[in-house]
Write a structure and sequence with these properties.
With 288 residues, the chain is an alpha/beta fold. It has helices spanning 3-12, 57-67, 81-89, 100-108, 125-132, 144-153, 184-194, 210-215, 217-222, 234-240, 255-263; strands spanning 28-34, 38-43, 49-52, 114-119, 135-140, 169-175, 195-206, 230-231, 246-250, 269-271, 278-284. Strands 5-4-6-7-11-9-10 form a seven-stranded mixed β-sheet, sandwiched between helices. The chain is globular, with a radius of gyration of 19 Å.
């Protein structure tokens, strides 16, 4: 969407309701603004930060069919065959979409393989790698053209309807997806329904935590906007997972991070460094 189109859309929705799209609370506070009319609110009940005006599920679905693009050369691009062949031959090892850091985290949780869902898989560049690492992987993607491309070119079976995914999963994983959805709570709820008891919800996205904002206010402001209607934080995750074991940290991940994940008792709540640009949450499907 062009900046002009986004401005017009925002202007016409300026007086729409400001209730939290996740918990529906009517209690919120203004946190940031852009272009005078686009605003970031923080829910005073669940601590989710969300852009106003909000997006409907219909708009969200239509936007992610063909209008959403990223300029990194891979996330939303339809890769040419010769370049795709190089990526496949290297198992994406030289790509910024290399999943080895996530596999180390899965291994640290006790999974050298198992049942995994790649939630929001685009055209399957991560799904393909997870399969090669030995994980029985299902994937879901809202964009039908990208799912079709991945199914054709990578031999995958990416679903475009989340209800077609099967449950009893060890891991539900998403990378830079949760900040895009119209309802964070709906995504989390549907993910936990797909997990077996003791399975893990794992999500990485831009970091909106207070410690990061205080240290990098300019970057914080860049992390929300037209394509990022949500900004996730340790404060939100601490609230939403208050009755579950969790581990929260931020990038960059190092050997110490992997060691802490490996030694985590999976029954406690741990918060590590919160000053990195991307926040990772690992929440276990069990209550205290």
């Amino acid at each position: 969407m062009s900046k002009v189109s986004y401005f017009i859309k925002t202007l016409f929705s300026y007086f729409s309701d400001k209730n939290c799209p996740s918990c529906k609370s009517k209690s919120y506070k203004l946190t940031d603004t852009k272009y005078f009319i686009s605003r970031l609110y923080e829910c005073e009940n669940c601590n989710l930060m969300y852009r106003h005006p909000k997006d409907s599920e219909t708009f969200n679905f239509e936007f992610y069919q063909k209008k959403y693009t990223q300029n990194d050369g891979i996330t939303t691009d339809i890769i040419e065959d010769n370049e795709l062949k190089k990526l496949i031959n290297s198992n994406f090892s030289n790509s910024e979409k290399n999943v080895s850091r996530f596999v180390k985290i899965f291994n640290g949780l006790g999974f050298k393989g198992g049942n995994l869902i790649d939630y929001g898989s685009s055209w399957g560049y991560m799904t393909y790698q997870f399969i090669n690492y030995g994980f029985n992987t299902q994937s879901f993607e809202i964009s039908e053209p990208r799912a079709k491309f991945g199914n054709l070119k990578l031999g995958l079976n990416i679903k475009t309807d989340v209800t077609l995914l099967t449950g009893n999963q060890d891991l539900v994983f998403s990378s830079h997806v949760i900040e895009h959805v119209p309802s964070v709570s709906n995504m989390i709820e549907s993910s936990f329904k797909l997990l077996k008891k003791g399975g893990f919800f794992i999500s990485e996205c831009p970091n909106g935590s207070k410690k990061f904002r205080d240290k990098f206010p300019h970057l914080f402001s860049q992390f929300w906007g037209e394509v990022h209607p949500n900004l996730l934080s340790a404060e939100y995750y601490t609230h939403i997972f208050k009755d579950r074991p969790f581990l929260i940290t931020t990038t960059p991940y190092d050997d110490e991070t992997y060691n802490i994940v490996s030694s985590w008792d999976q029954t406690s709540q741990i918060i590590l460094n919160l000053e990195g640009p991307e926040i990772l949450v690992i929440a276990r499907n069990s209550n205290f």
